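input
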Amino acid sequence: MEELIRKGGELKAAIAEMTAHLRAINLEIAENMEFGNKKSSTITEGGWSAKVTQRENIKWDQKRLGKLRSHVGDEDFFSTFKVEFKPQNAKALEISPFLQEIQFCRTVTPGAPSVVYKEVEQDG
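output
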């Protein structure tokens, strides 16, 4: 077990370092690409092909959307936006008066385990 934990920690640190380096390289490549009016562009150099796609992260202001919804009306609003049902939080789900019925409406599958590695200094 000791060897697995040590190796896992070392790999995690190496991956983090390589991921940061790769992000920096990707950014530099993207900054030097010509996209024209396209969202993606491909370049081939040194026996490798790199396709770069420009992306945007979008966040929606829920309060503003609520105001827009009341202004344009539900019919028009929901022709563009969808409603998504999610529990308010884990506690609300646990204390729900219809918890038994909720179980029928969900599927639970195992996820990948989360393991956090932290290097510990050795004494002596």
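quick obs: Residues 59-108 form one domain.
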